[in-house]
Amino acid sequence: MSTFKPTPQQQSAIEYTQSMIITACPGSGKTTVMKEKVRNTTLYLPPHKGVIAITFTKKASAELKKKCTANAHDTKQSYFGTIDSFCLKEIILPFISRVWGKPEIELKTVKKLHPAQAQYFQKKYTSPTYEDISSDSGFKKLYEEGLLWMTSFAALALYILKHSKAALRYISARYSHVFIDEYQDSSLSQHQLFLSLFDQGLTATAVGDAWQSIYEFRGGDSKLLTELTENEHFKHFVIDINHRCHASIVNYATRLMDPNATLLSHAHDDLRVHRLHLAGNLTNIGKVLSDFVKQLKEKHAIENESDIAILAKKEKSLFLCTQGIEIDYRLYNDSPLDESSSSDCADFYSDLLAFRYGAIGTIQDLIDIHFDLVSAKHISISKLRILIGKLRSEQTVEELVFKFRELASFIGILNTTDTDRALRLKFNEPSFIKQFTPIAKNEVQVMTLHKSKGLEFKYVFHLDLEQWSFPYMEKGDNWDDLRYPSLMQDTNLHYVGITRAEDHCYLIRAEYRQNVSGKDSKSRESYFWSLPHLAGLYT
Q1: What is the value of pTM for the model shown?
Q2: Contact yes or no for 144/97 (Cβ under 8 A)
Q3: Contact status, residue 52 vs residue 78, Cβ threshold 8 Å
Q4: Of 118, 104, 111, which is closest to residue 88 (Cα–Cα)?
């Protein structure tokens, strides 16, 4: 195993021991820096303390925990998880009854509210804040009916911390530091919670990149990261050397975001960003890309087709493209399980399927993601392992649903009805099940730009670069009034797509795009292709 040798930028961030902000570009090794800081910090903590390590997804959390505990390193009483899971397990469930009393019925969490439940509130909330919890009695009424709304977790956790001295004492006694990754996608309530933990004496570290902010529609606000870089209580570190992408890809992506950015001079004679205007529609282009991948394989430019990704803004574009693909591929579309109204149930069932079909390799991996807080009073680890292991045996969908329900009960998921129904509907569809199997080396990866975040590929084919398709455009009162209402978010998303490529990035405009009527119409080039500051940076 190779020994990690930090760059001077990385080393400075790792060695600093006070509260700090790290802004890091793609491919800069920020996860490794965060891992090193967690390991260095926990090395000197007493056995009863730990750190809070927050990541954006459960998968990222499991990977960070695995890296932090490598070689039997003891992270003491540290918490690894998402912001929602931390708020629920460490603050809300243990202490909410001290603030609002104990509800008469057992609590359950929900991801989506039914229309009747939404009427409890004074207004419609996208991402509630502490102030909303304080002023709107609808949140307490929802709780009294035994419901905890996932969207409100960060604000509710902060509300509890402000109204429960026991909760404050617990957090201060248990944790010394808080680390939050992907801070550019934090909501205002998550930001307020982070600052509250800092105010309670925890050493606080936030890691992010404003240029990769792509979740504004969920309440994420990259300005909160920018504000922290200007906060005198936090020292700002910049890690801006991209070790992943070819220099010409770095140049193109950086100039997309900053027209005056300084370019890497050694990339001018070897441009690896290519703009292609291809004949036909997206289905025709699927066949063209299939032939191109075959040529790459024959020329030994790639070893595995899984090193290639086809990315698009819209799932519809991916569907059209795959109609023409003549090679093996893996399409990552939204699972129908995600439509379940039960908060964690869809994600939990998806991971059980991933274990059953091999995408999650071991029982311990699954336990680390979901069962780390299961009490031995409910089930012993040995019995839990036996139950999980049985998921891989031959059985009917009803037998599997029964086992899924039983496992869900151990982590507090009691209402599985909607997710059970979704699983029954899709269980026998090969394209659905394929999403939960290990990635095969001969499969090109096909996914949306949002799903590609955090991944990397040798070759990237970036679709949807037509006017109207990407960036999103809408018409005002007349045809002279055309607008890009989400231009900043779309630009960030374009940047994410480009920087997934290590060796080559192909930006593709189709001759024909499918319009809102479902018919093919002649396309015009995307706004992104009209930017003068990108001239000379592509072939």
Answers
A1: 0.89
A2: no
A3: yes
A4: 111
